[in-house]
What we know:
By secondary structure, the protein is α+β, with helices and mostly antiparallel strands.
Amino acid sequence: MSRKYNCNKCPAYCCSYARIIVTNKDIKRLAKHHGLSVQDARKKFTKKGEEPGERILRHQSDPHFTSICRFLDQETRGCTIYEARPGICREFPGKGRCGYYDFLTFERRAQEDPDWISTTG
């Protein structure tokens, strides 16, 4: 199935999800990538999630989405740890289309602007 969207042209909507869940394997990958111990990477890059035992990536402030993954480069809107990114990021958007692609194309049609991107006011 061919994609009907291009992630490289996206302002990183998926990186704005509040719960970017990481596994122990993901934390080990981040630790290795940054030359840290697993314990230090866990503390520095993750925090407790909503579910018992769940770990999620920490965020940073973002002018477009208020909060976004700490590993997103805000200038390029690209992942700064692409080779070490968590499994959930590797799998997204899965077999279907991205929900934000649907939102974006709807808004671009509604705004009659093919380059429209949501921003905060």
